[in-house]
Design brief:
The complex is a heterotrimer of chains A (396), B (174) and C (171). Chain A has 396 residues and is of the alpha+beta class. Chain A has 17 helices and nine strands. Chain C is mainly α. Chain C is built from six helices and three strands, in the order H-H-H-E-H-E-H-E-H. The longest helix of chain C is centred in the last third of the chain and has 16 residues, at 136-151. Chain C is globular and about 55 Å long. Chain C starts with a helix and ends in a 20-residue tail after the last helix. The chains are: A alpha+beta (396), B alpha/beta (174), C mainly alpha (171).
Chain lengths: 396, 174, 171
C-alpha cells in the first residue's frame, strides 16, 4: 500500500512496507521515507504480534511458564527455554548434573543450526535464490525429526525443565545426531557453492547495511550482527553457561559489518555449532538427566513409591508449584540472534512478580534506520534479512 | 571485577546516591536515588575499571501493593571486562517519572518506550516517547498489577477492527 | 459457489458448475500471510517434504487480489486484526479461510488482553485446524477437507460463521 504525500516541503514519498509482506519475516511494518528510490528514513512499527507473554507469566507458576517461551522466538525454541531455566535455577541456586548440561548444549546447538538454516533460507529467498530455501528446509526437517524424537513435538518441545530435562535422550538418538553431523558439512558446502561467490549475491549484499563496531555497541546490538562488525563478544566464550567451557570451538568474528559479512559469520557459526554437536555426542557423560532436589524438581515414580517425603514433595509441587526464594536473577544465553536474557523477580511465592525477556531482535531492529539510510528500496529486504529478526520475540 | 568490588566502588563514589546494595546470586545490584540515576549510569559507562559500554535493557517492576510501587531496572554489561551491573531506582505511583538515559546509552531508546507503554512510567527527556507494542489508541498500561491478564475493556467491536472504506475513499488524495 | 451463484439454480448449469467447482478446489492459491509459529509449519508444508503444491497450491501469492485462500497461521493480535480484515476484504470472491492452529481458532494458550480469541471474530472461517503448531500433514488434511467442501457445498452442514464478533466477557 503506497500513499504519496508532500512532506513538509521536502520531496519525499512515504511508502508503507506493511505488516503483510513476503519479505518482512513476520508482521513487521516499516515506514519508509523515500527520495526517489533512496531511503531517507526507515522506521519500524512493531507490536502486531504482541501477546502479553510477560503478563501471562505472572499468572502461571514457574513450570507452566516454560510453555510460553518457545513460542516467542519460534525459530529457535529451545534457546528460550534454556535462558528461562538458567534464570530460575540461578534464583534457586540449583545445580544441574553434567549429563543434563551436555544434552542442553547439544540441543542448543542443534537449535542454533535450526535458526540459522531458516535465516539462510528466507534471506536467500528474499534476495531471489529460491533453491536455497528448499534445501535449507530439507536439512531442517532432519533437525525437527530429532526434536520429535526427544520431545515429542516438532517445534515447541518444552524439553528443558527447571533442574535439567524432562526426560533422558531416547535410544538411537545419538546415531541420529551423528548421521546428521556426517551429512551436514557437504550440504553446507552446497549452499556456499550457490551463494558465496555468486556475483549476483555479492552485488546485492556487499557494502549494504554497514555498521561499525562502536555504533553496534552503542545501539546495543548483539549476536552475529555485532560480531560481523568486529565486536568481540560471544556469551558462550566470555561468560560460559551450562558447561560451554568444556567445548572446543571458535567464536566467529568479522570486520566489514555489512550484509555479506553477516552471512559469512553465520555460515561459519553453523560449522562451529556442528563441531560442538559432535563433541557433545562423543563426550556425553553418564549420569542423571535432572537434579533431584525434591522441593523444586518433581520426583520420579520409583522415588514416590519408596519414600513418604517424596510423596509430599510431589504433592506440593503439583498443587502449589515450586517456590523459589525471594530475590531476582538475570541469565543470558547466546541465542542464534544475540543476547537473549531473562530477568526474573520472585517474592517467594509460586508465581513470579516479573519475568522480563530481553529479546535480541528487539534491539537489533532498532538500528534499522541507521542501516538503511542511503540505500535503495531493494536493499531494505536484504538488510532486514541479515538482521535475522523474529517478530514473536520482538513483540512478545 | 568481582561483584563485591563493583558494589563497594559505586557506594564509595556516590555515597548519597546509592541507597542499597546487594550481591545476591553473584550479581552486582545497586539501588540508587532517582536524581543520581543519570550520573551513576554515566559513571559506569566512562570509568575505566567498570567500562560498561553495552546496554542490556531497562524495564520496570510493579510491586503493588508495596510502596514505592515501581522499580526501574537498568542492566549494563562490559564487553571488555565481562561483568554485569544492575542499577535500580524506586519510584512511587503518583510520581511515576524517571529521567531518560538515552543521552548516555543510545540503546535505551526502544526499551524506555516499551516500559512507558506497558507501565505508564514517563521517561523525561526521551526524544520520542510513544507506545511501541500496543496500538496508539490503547487505554491503560497492561503490565500494572491491577490490569487483568484477559484485558479490562472490549477494544474490538467494529470501530477498531472493521476498516471504514467510505471514509478512507473520501480522505485519500493521490 | 460456482456458476450457480451467477446464473441461478438451473439444470442446464449443473455439470458446468461441477466442473468449475472441481477446478477451483484443485487450484487453491493461498495468500502469503504468516503471523507466528504456525507460519513456519506452513512454510514447511510448502517445502519439499510435505509439498503443498501437489494439492494445487502451487504458489503462495503475495497480493490478496490474486489469492483464493487466507490461511491464518498464528496468534492474531488486536493491532493486526484490522489489517487482516482489510486483506480479507481485498481478496476477490470466491475465497475461503483456514484458521490454522490453536491461537487462530480460539486464542490458544494465550488468553490475554491483546490476542483475538479466535479469528472468527474478524473473518468468517471455513476450516479450523487444531494443533500448536499443527503438523504440516494436519494443515494438508485441513486443505483436503476444504477441497471436499468446495466440491460439495451442500454437504457442508456446519453453519457458515459470518463475522461473529464475540463480546469479551470481563473476567
Amino acid at each position: 500500500m503506497a500513499v504519496a504525500a508532500k512532506k513538509k516541503g521536502k520531496r519525499t514519498v512515504v511508502l508503507n512496507m506493511g505488516p503483510q509482506h513476503p519479505a518482512t519475516h513476520g508482521v513487521l511494518r516499516v515506514i519508509l521515507e523515500l527520495d526517489g528510490e533512496i531511503i531517507v528514513n526507515a522506521e519500524p512499527d512493531i507490536g502486531y504480534l504482541h501477546t502479553g507473554i510477560e503478563k501471562l507469566s505472572e499468572f502461571h507458576n514457574y513450570t507452566q511458564n516454560i510453555t510460553h517461551y518457545p513460542r516467542m522466538d519460534y525459530l529457535a525454541p529451545m534457546n528460550n527455554e534454556l535462558a528461562y531455566c538458567l534464570a530460575v535455577e540461578k534464583l534457586i541456586g540449583l545445580e544441574v548434573p553434567k549429563r543434563a548440561r551436555y544434552i542442553r548444549v547439544l540441543m542448543s546447538e542443534l537449535t542454533r543450526l535450526n535458526s540459522h538454516l531458516i535465516w539462510l533460507g528466507t534471506h536467500a529467498l528474499d534476495i531471489g535464490a529460491m533453491t536455497v530455501f528448499l534445501y535449507c528446509f530439507r536439512e531442517r526437517e532432519r533437525i525437527l525429526d530429532m526434536y520429535e524424537a526427544i520431545g515429542g513435538q516438532r517445534m515447541m518441545t518444552t524439553y528443558f525443565r527447571i533442574g535439567g530435562l524432562a526426560a533422558d535422550i531416547p535410544d538411537g538418538f545419538r546415531e541420529m545426531v551423528t548421521s546428521f553431523a556426517d551429512d551436514f558439512p557437504a550440504r553446507l558446502a552446497e549452499y556456499e557453492g550457490l551463494l558465496t561467490k555468486n556475483p549476483i549475491w555479492l552485488k546485492r549484499t556487499q557494502g549494504i547495511g554497514k555498521i561499525s563496531a562502536e555504533e553496534a555497541v552503542e545501539f546495543g546490538l548483539s549476536g552475529p550482527v555485532a560480531r560481523a562488525s568486529g565486536v568481540h563478544w560471544d556469551i558462550r566464550k566470555d561468560t560460559p553457561y551450562s558447561s560451554y567451557e568444556d567445548f572446543d570451538f571458535n567464536a566467529v568474528f568479522g570486520t566489514e559489518g555489512d550484509v555479506y559479512e553477516r552471512y559469512l559469520v553465520r555460515i561459519e557459526e553453523m560449522r562451529q555449532s556442528l563441531r560442538i554437536v559432535r563433541q557433545a555426542v562423543d563426550n556425553m557423560p553418564d549420569g542423571d538427566y535432572s537434579a533431584r532436589d525434591g522441593k523444586y524438581v518433581p520426583p520420579t515414580r520409583d522415588r514416590i513409591n519408596a519414600s513418604m517425603e517424596e510423596v509430599i514433595h510431589h504433592f506440593k509441587i503439583w498443587t502449589e508449584g515450586i517456590k523459589p526464594p525471594a530475590g531476582e536473577a538475570y541469565a543470558a544465553v547466546e541465542s542464534g540472534k544475540g543476547e537473549l536474557g531473562f530477568y526474573i523477580v520472585s517474592d517467594g511465592s509460586a508465581r513470579a512478580v516479573r519475568v522480563k525477556v530481553r529479546p535480541p531482535s528487539f534491539v537489533n531492529l532498532s538500528s534499522l534506520a541507521k542501516l538503511c539510510k542511503g540505500h535503495l528500496i531493494a536493499d531494505v529486504v536484504a538488510i532486514i534479512g541479515s538482521l535475522d529478526i523474529v517478530l514473536g520475540e520482538i513483540d512478545r | 571485577m568481582d561483584v563485591q568490588t563493583i558494589v563497594t566502588k559505586l557506594s564509595e563514589r556516590f555515597p548519597d546516591g546509592v541507597v542499597e546494595t546487594s550481591t545476591a546470586n553473584a550479581e552486582a545490584t545497586v539501588v540508587v536515588k532517582r536524581d543520581a540515576l543519570k550520573d551513576v549510569l554515566a559513571f559506569v559507562k566512562t570509568d575505566a575499571e567498570l567500562d560498561c559500554d553495552f546496554f542490556s535493557f531497562v524495564t520496570a517492576v510493579d510491586h503493588h501493593p508495596k510502596v514505592p510501587r515501581f522499580e526501574a531496572v537498568y542492566e549494563v554489561y562490559s564487553i571488555r571486562l565481562k561483568h554485569r551491573i544492575r542499577i535500580k531506582t524506586r519510584i512511587t505511583e503518583e510520581d511515576a517519572r524517571v529521567p531518560s538515559v538515552v543521552g548516555v546509552y543510545r540503546g535505551a531508546n526502544w526499551h524506555e518506550r516499551e516500559a512507558y507503554d506497558l507501565f505508564g512510567i514517563v521517561f523525561e527527556g526521551h526524544p520520542d516517547l510513544r507506545r511501541i507494542v500496543l496500538p496508539t489508541n490503547w487505554d491503560g498500561h497492561p503490565l500494572r498489577k491491577e490490569y487483568s491478564a484477559q484485558g479490562e475493556i472490549v477494544w474490538n467491536l467494529g470501530k477498531n477492527v472493521l476498516p471504514d472504506y467510505d471514509r478512507e475513499a473520501e480522505e485519500t488524495t493521490i | 459457489m460456482g456458476v450457480v451463484d451467477a446464473l441461478g439454480q438451473n439444470v442446464i448449469v449443473t455439470t458446468v458448475d461441477k466442473m468449475v467447482r472441481w477446478a477451483r478446489s484443485n487450484s487453491i492459491w493461498p495468500l502469503g500471510f504468516g503471523l507466528a509459529c504456525c507460519a513456519i509449519e506452513m512454510m514447511s508444508a510448502g517445502a519439499s517434504r510435505f509439498d503443498i503444491a501437489r494439492f494445487g497450491s502451487e504458489v503462495f501469492r503475495s497480493s490478496p487480489r490474486q489469492a483464493d485462500l487466507l490461511i491464518v497461521p498464528g496468534r492474531l493480535s488486536w493491532k493486526m486484526a484490522p489489517i487482516m480484515r482489510r486483506l480479507w476484504d481485498q481478496m476477490p470472491e470466491p475465497k475461503w479461510c483456514i484458521s490454522m492452529g490453536a491461537c487462530a481458532s480460539c486464542g490458544g494458550v494465550f488468553s490475554t488482553y491483546s490476542i483475538v480469541q479466535g479469528v472468527d471474530c474478524v473473518v468468517p472461517v471455513d476450516i479450523y485446524v487444531p494443533g500448536c503448531p499443527p503438523r504440516p500433514e494436519a494443515l494438508l488434511d485441513g486443505l483436503i477437507k476444504l477441497q471436499e467442501k468446495i466440491r460439495n457445498p451442500k454437504a457442508d452442514i456446519s453453519p457458515k460463521h459470518r463475522l461473529g464478533i464475540a463480546p469479551r466477557i470481563k473476567v
